[in-house]
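Hi support team,

I submitted a single chain yesterday and got back a structure, but I'm not sure I'm reading the token output correctly. Could someone confirm the output below corresponds to the sequence I sent? I've pasted both exactly as they appear in my results page.

Thanks,
R.
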Amino acid sequence: MSDSSGSGSGGGLPAAARPNAAPARMTGGEALARTLAAARVGPMFGMGGFQLLPFYEAVRALGLTHVLINDERTGCFAADAWARITNRPGVCDATLGPGATNLTTALVEALNAGTPMLAIAAPMGETMIAAALLGAAGIAPPAGPTALAVNGAPPVPWGRHARHLVHLEGEAVTLAAAVAPSWRHGGNIGREPRDELLSPPTAPHAEGRLPASFGTEAGLLATALLRACQIAGALGAALDLTVEYANTRKQFGRPIGRFQAVQQNLAVLAGEVAAAQVAAANACRAADRHGLGGAGFEIGCAKVVAGEAATTGAAIAHQVFAAIGFTEEHALHHLTRRLWSWREEAGTERFWAARLGREVQALNGDGAALWPFITARDEDDDATP
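Hi R., thanks for writing in. Yes, this is the structure output for that exact sequence:
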């Protein structure tokens, strides 16, 4: 292992390299590094790749500590160990495609142990969904970032950065190169690329069909599950930032976290975080046990709970931070703007609540079948080895 920065502090850096001196224009790697510096993360672990070079350059300029590892799994386990020892979030990174998938084992271990972790490999979520759908359709997932287009409806997340495009139309899956299509660049309020496909891609490299367990809405369900998980993670990070600020920011001679009104708001925020995380974890478990097609109820519930938590949680966090949370160099708004964006994507709370309501009404007109329906799903999970 080798340390790619050699220093863990920002002393002696030029003004342009300090976390609170944001330039007028910066790369995505610089923005990410500045967010991590503002959050005062510890050492980061990962295996280098060309997609991460702008990030590594910014890490070095900011004086952050990054430890190069010769295997992504080792780096993720090292971050997990550091998090357990220090009780602070562990940070690891990997290149897209196979590099990102090598993080899976260690991330699942961290999830089961309740270890706070941050894995950097954007757009990892969409690439992992696309790879899972391709694998289920009998198509070998390609290396590199992969965009997912569902039923031809714009926008396509991260389309301009993708090497490959997976198009999902019902149960039909096609894989094509993404270098030929023409994209109209767009974005959400979280500043994530959301692009519109203007011209069709080249002839597909491969075609296949999803198994029946994925259902006919696999793209919608998978994206909704991803957004619910992302909301849960971002809310947890916002809670950590907010609690730390409340414990250090002093007003009238004491930390603002000592005031009862602030404590009440922080308790509400913590409750929303817990609700979103439990709902997302339950939906993941249901998808794992019953397939996407059989987990629509749990995924819909997770999206509703996560969306409501995002609304309440973001408001509380910004109320505690006041105006500072909206400044460009601060980390909070990078989380909350994404919360607001993800809340609207893959179905709003209203969309999923109406869908869940129709499903429940179809069970029994007087609602008597609702409780047996819910408890039977839990019993199915318990009985599954």
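A quick pointer for reading it: The chain has three domains: 2-121, 125-210, 218-383. Let us know if anything else looks off.

Best,
Support desk
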